[in-house]
Design a protein that fits this description.
Structural class: alpha/beta
Distance between the termini: 48 Å
Strand order of the largest sheet: 2-3-9-10-11-12-13
Strand content: 5-15%
Number of strands: 15
Shape: elongated
Number of domains: 2
Amino acid sequence: MKLNRKGVHLFFLVGILSLSALGLAPRWKAELSHRTFAMVIESTEIQSLSRQEGLPVESLLKEMKGQKLEGVAVNELTGLELIEGQSGFLFGPVAKIPEARALFPRVSGDLALISFSRERPWSDEALAYLKAKFPGLKVASASSMEYVLLPRSAYELEKAGVIPDFEGLELARRGALPVLYRPVPCPGAGGDRVVASLETLVKRRPEIRGILPQGLFVPGAPDIDRFGKWIREKGLFLAQAEFSRQHGAEILNRFSYPALVPLHSVTTDEILVKRISRDAIVERMIRAFVERSVPLLLIRSYEIETGGRYAAVLSDMGRIRTDLERRGYQSGWPEPIGDWPRSRAGAVAFGLTLALLCLRLFLRFSGRIDGPAGWPEVAWILTGGLTLAFLMLHLPLVAKLTGAFGSAFLATEVCLWALGEFRKPAFGLFSALLLTITGGLALASFFSTPLTMLRIQPFSGVKLTLLLPPLLVLAHDFCSGISPESARKLIARPMIWLEFLLVCLILLAAGVLALRSDNTAFVGGWERTLRDLLERALVARPRTKELFIGYPALILWYAMARANWGRPAWILPRVAASIGFASAVNSFCHFHTRLPFILFRVFNGWWAGIAMGLVLVGVLRFAVFPLVFKWRSVHWT
């Protein structure tokens, strides 16, 4: 019995969309319940600004909390910071502290000594922390002072973490603010010592809610697993710094999972290297939360502005708060998103999608896509989809491969579908959008777990989705005869003027893409204003691959195909169009981005790219081509 192939495949697409909705339910629930952002600033920054402004710390905290400051980052002090007198400690080698030489005779003069008053409210905490971190230390008391001789030289501890900044902890306690504690690696302090010292601190400081390691290495390495497990067991979370190059950070993220909360910051070194403006810093903070779901935003007062630093910080915080609240988000202390397994419904949805894609691409390359279907075809899709679903759920390698190739096949099939509808362009464009969304949601329904959303388990299909579709479209055009020449003849002959013009347009768009993609350093003030306006009006800015390359190339192909003109150059806009669909599919592979934002971005890229394509065709039709034809003494036909 013969069946209508389009009807059969439409039936499967409806089923795939329904299964995808079930598979995406946990992600959707997590996104709805985690809509808070938190601005955090280091306690040392607050103290520094207080001195520069000549205002009490409490006054600054009050003003910052008015701009929705939600937490304080408190550092573990290094030897150099202690030498500078931070937090009220006396620190240095025994040989340079006269009163210590009498208390600790016959010890090496380079050993580090730390001293503090017993009248400090945190003196017992400090001593307990040091004993846990430095077994074998010696303690002596004199004149209401505690003298602690550490079994390390002062030189060893210059850049090592020694003791918490208790003044910073007290500041957070007075301000009733949660704390991100920032431990520093220390020679000889393995995972057991790091955990033991932090245990003494957390017992007395319930305001410590998260851990944000600092330094070139993770504290406690190589015994990182114990550190991560302790974070989970204590009900804390690890602040997962974006783009961190800290050695061991990825391992700590895995062992701390699912107790992870992403954090974004902009360092002074990055500002100097990339010449990032203050406006660009604010934009990056907003984009980190909106586009990548990063709820913790570490605010800094940068040394590049020696005057007016406090006013600049308040201004930055106010702009971030206003923009995010206008988008419907709220300020509040974030929590980890939790954990859930891969969805069976999502596996079936993506399995059926991949089986359907493989079948359609096979039919296209064999020239039988327009023929009728039969029950064996239906059985093949069902059997193949369910088999793939079972393998994806039980074999990680299969899941990895199907994700990589499935996203590439999806972009290819949607592109070829849209290219084939040049006689009904409106139908082709609208159906291509629906197919992209349906396939993208199926992809997301299976791979949307906290492991991928937090980028612990990377998705391997992003690069392949950009590289493979143009090659498959090109191969299809040579196999199906859309290109009037073979690949060998095309390469051997000289380039005609139309091909040269289209190649220049594609290279120009690619150059803009390469210069501007994920970049704010080259954006002028007027354009930033325009981009802000677009974000407020459109919710999500279109991706440049769709706006400047993919959809304009598709519209150009429609114009050329409908006029049956420029056939030798057809493959250029067709291949370029695949880049736009690859970009749209890749949007669904960004599992850390909220689904509504992805859908808005794909939709905006679709209609804005079409509009850009219509403008391009108009400019070519009424300006460029008449000039070229006049120059070549050829009339437009």
